[in-house]
Amino acid sequence: MQQSELDFINTLRQSSRYIEQHRGKTCVIYLPGDFISSKDSISQLSQDIGLLYNLGLKIVLVMGASPQLDLAFTEAGIDWKLHHQFRITPTELIPVFQKTIGLLRSQLEANFSQANCLQPNPPTLVSGNWVIAQPKGVIDGIDFQHTGKLRKIRHQAISDCLDSGQVALLTPIAYSLTGEVFNLNTLEQACEMASAISADKLMVYGSQLQLKELPKQLSVPQLNKIMLKPANDEQSRLLKQVSYSCQNVKRIHLMDQTNPSALLLELFSRDGSGTLIFSDRYHQLRPASIEDVGGILGLIEPLEQEGVLVKRSRERLELEIDNFVVIERDQLIIGCAALYSNDENMAELACLAIHPNYQGQELGSELLKAIEVNAVKMKANRLFLLTTHTHHWFIEHGFNLADISVLPNKKQSLYNYQRQSKVLVKTL
Ligand SMILES: CC(C)(COP(=O)(O)OP(=O)(O)OC[C@H]1O[C@@H](n2cnc3c(N)ncnc32)[C@H](O)[C@@H]1OP(=O)(O)O)[C@@H](O)C(=O)NCCC(=O)NCCS
């Protein structure tokens, strides 16, 4: 078999579990105006939405249009203003506003029709008045006029639309109950919509500036930490807005709008392509079982070769598997640690390792905490370990350097003087 065929089969196998996971799930996707201004991005997206639709996902698209509106107003010779980053929309802008959004919507529908013409079951893109607007009002003495804010969402109506097999499209246009036209911020709409319909995922395309230096995954506490010191104002605005929807939406994905494959990579590969903000637990910390031996070996063997960990044979690992706890993510063992009891109320921590791709997310600290809890349950009052490379990390986690003489007698007699490991002890 050729390498390309093998790669294809492996990729298909790897993604099959995600195909099953995502079937029937609801996904709100935010498309900023910059993203839809690229013809290539839109035609790729239209095809990908067709694929997702046929894999059973329910999809709401929320289309922004800031750069297109800026251009349309400038071309019409209309002087438009921003206040606190929000556009003021006077009555005379409304016809140009409606015309620009109508045109964009039509272009998107045309792309959809073309991209999905060969699909046996092509999705239909529909828009409707699911979002009810109200005036943003007068702020700092400035009347925002037809700039609106979201008043309510007809969530049952949009859920019915998705259940009937259609892809829903929201635009910046929304109407008040008095029949007035309003210009609504679309990122806000996407977040509120995802919350209102309890979407499984909110997927947000953003600029490289907005995504600058963001890690691959963020728990909500980590997100809050970054929001205290964002890389720039653009990032701050994006993170603040999406953080509002964290309560009802379990997973928010931030994707690079310049990467046309970002959506599929994010949904169907283990590590995705952007940043995942999760409010549920994305990984599982649990006692190891015999089925985990292969996964643990895969994790620790490279560290054994580097001399960071002491070599353990498969047989020894099988015998000692009950001493281990592991962190599993999407059926991959990404962390492990072992605990050994001792007669002298001193328990030993060993074999702590986190997969290099997942380091720096406090998973090591989480494993250490779990080991400490287990050690206390074993009635140990001190935890010790031997390390050649990592003593600083342990000192930062409450351990102190100690002399070999503090070790339990049996451990002292086995001490390998060639390895010159440092001894660290923590009182529990
Ligand atoms: C040590 C280890 C378990 C930490 O896991 P982790 O999930 O990355 O840990 P955390 O996210 O809680 O901590 C990350 C911090 O530890 C620091 N760190 C990682 N290895 C370190 C080391 N050897 N010495 C000092 N600091 C270290 C990182 O630089 C990072 O610092 P920052 O927060 O200032 O950026 C992981 O780096 C690992 O598996 N290392 C290789 C195996 C190993 O040394 N095991 C211990 C043998 S007993």
Automatic annotation (TrEMBL):
Catalytic reactions on record: L-glutamate + acetyl-CoA = N-acetyl-L-glutamate + CoA + H(+)
Domain (N-acetyltransferase): residue spans on this chain: 283-428
Residue ranges that the Swiss-Prot or TrEMBL entry lists as coiled coil: none
EC class name: transferase
Pathway annotation from the record: Amino-acid biosynthesis; L-arginine biosynthesis; N(2)-acetyl-L-ornithine from L-glutamate: step 1/4
Cellular localization per UniProt: Cytoplasm
Protein keywords: Acyltransferase, Amino-acid biosynthesis, Arginine biosynthesis, Cytoplasm, Transferase
Family: Belongs to the acetyltransferase family. ArgA subfamily.
Other information: In bacteria which possess the bifunctional enzyme ornithine acetyltransferase/N-acetylglutamate synthase (ArgJ), ArgA fulfills an anaplerotic role.
This protein's name: Amino-acid acetyltransferase
Gene field: argA
